[in-house]
Design goal:
CATH topology of the largest domain: Dihydrodipicolinate Reductase, domain 2
Radius of gyration: 20 Å
Number of helices: 11
Order of helices and strands: EHEHEHEHEHEHEHHEHEEEEEEEEHHE
Strand content: 25-35%
Length: 343
């Protein structure tokens, strides 16, 4: 079996995970990496032995790629995605698809024009806990869902130290879209109305002009209502970089997920830790875990022709919810999400 030639755009915190995945995957040949930072490019060349580029177009034209993945900051997905699409190359885009509906629609329109397949990495769909909930909800014994709750929160280091672009994002886009996508997948239908409130001030005082926290109430076509809470101001002393909880009440059952505590505990002189061992690990020369699985499935679906587990429809629907959340926070009103006949 010929290996698929892959190029990665973005070699930062999450882009590095793409490099680990494709450099250890038997189906992939990591050929090239594009990043604007010359220091990162030098580091990548030294560690992975691949060509690096500052220009996406130059990388594509020089390397004869079969696939491109985009792991740039959230608000900069559009341009590299369009470059790959216009060269006829399939693309995997890290979540969210885009941080504006305008950008999302432009990506989708160009993908249709050039007949190029685009996947979105909403990796929570590959989490074994998420799969268990999805399967349970599909069992008639469970009954119809009535009410749901989901939270996902990050430590304050994420917007203040990890990223220089948090001013151009929010806990809604960075974390909320994970939740919106996962809940849509659980429900099997779309959101009709959104009401949300938010808090802003603490991060602004630290130089990051973005929301501290957002709480949204989502009403779905099946009548189920969900409360979704997202923030990125947990104290750095928290036992993991993030926290997450889910609870669903159905006609016959109560379903709960604790995404923070996975059953492994580590103690040292500085901190108590609860690592997410099923997310990403390296073992026996391979990168394993549900965080890497979307990258491997992307290549598999390109080879087999199977549909992606998360595609541009999922990407734009999550972005519709995110924009409605922001609009509701700003206006104090309930926002109705209109369905579009072309989508």
């Amino acid at each position: 079996m010929d290996r698929q030639r892959v190029g990665v755009v973005g070699a930062g915190i999450y882009g590095y995970n793409h490099l680990k995945a494709f450099s250890t995957c038997e189906e992939a040949e990591l050929c090239a990496v594009c990043d604007l930072n010359p220091e990162l490019r030098a580091k990548v060349e030294a560690e992975f032995g691949v060509h690096t580029y500052e220009s996406v177009d130059e990388m594509i034209e020089q390397e004869h790629l079969d696939a491109v993945t985009v792991a740039t900051p959230d608000c900069y997905h559009k341009d590299p995605a369009l470059s790959a699409i216009r060269h006829g190359i399939p693309v995997l885009i890290e979540k969210p698809l885009a941080t504006t509906l305008q950008d999302a629609r432009e990506i989708i329109a160009e993908a249709k024009k050039y007949n190029v397949r685009v996947a979105v990495d909403y990796h929570k769909r590959w989490d074994p806990a998420s799969i268990a909930i999805k399967n349970r909800l599909a069992d008639p014994k469970c009954g119809a869902p009535i009410r749901g709750y989901m939270s996902m929160d990050d430590i304050i280091d994420v917007p203040t130290k990890w990223f220089k672009w948090s001013n151009n994002s929010s806990p809604v886009h960075f974390l909320g879209t994970h939740c919106y996508d996962l809940i849509r997948w659980y429900m099997g239908c779309e959101v009709t109305q959104v009401y949300a409130v938010g808090h802003k001030g603490y991060l602004s005082s630290l130089g990051a002009d973005t929301l501290d926290s957002a709480t949204a109430i989502l009403t779905f076509e099946n009548g189920c209502t969900w409360t979704v809470e997202n923030s990125w101001i947990l104290p750095d002393g928290f036992s993991k970089n993030n926290d997450g909880r889910t609870q669903i009440i159905t006609e016959h059952e109560l379903l709960r997920v604790d995404s923070q505590y996975r059953g492994v505990e580590i103690y040292n002189e500085q901190k108590y830790g609860t690592p997410n061992y099923v997310f990403m690990q390296e073992f026996n020369g391979r990168a394993i875990g549900f965080g890497y699985n979307p990258m491997y499935d992307f290549l598999r679906c390109l080879r087999t022709g199977e549909p992606f587990l998360a595609d541009t429809t999922d990407g734009i629907e999550a972005e519709k919810i995110a924009e409605a959340v922001h609009e509701s926070i700003e206006t104090g009103k309930t926002v109705t999400i209109e369905r579009e006949k072309s989508e």
